[in-house]
Amino acid sequence: MRIRTALAYLLLLQLCCLPLAGKAKHRPNVILIMADDLGYHDLSSYGHPRIKTPVLDQVAREGIKLTSFYAGATVCTPSRMALLTGAYPTRLGWSKGVIGHIMKKGEGLNPAALTIGEVFRDSGYRTGMFGKWHLGDQPPFRPDRQGFSSTFYINKSNNQTKELWRGDLLVAKPFENKRLTESFTNEALKFIDENRSNPFFLYIPYTAPHFPLEAHPDWKGRSNFGVYGDVVEELDHRVGQILARLKLRHLEQNTIVIFMSDNGPEPLTKESKALPFRGKKWSALEGGTRVPCLLRFPGVLPAGKESDALISAIDLLPTLAHACSIDLGEFAAGFPVIDGLNVWNTLLGDNPKAHPRKNLLYWHGANGFQAIRHGTWKLFMNSRDAGLKSSRGPALFNLENDQQEMRDLSADHPAIVSKLQKLAKKQLSEIAENKIAPGRTK
Question: Whole-model pTM?
Answer without folding.
Answer: 0.93
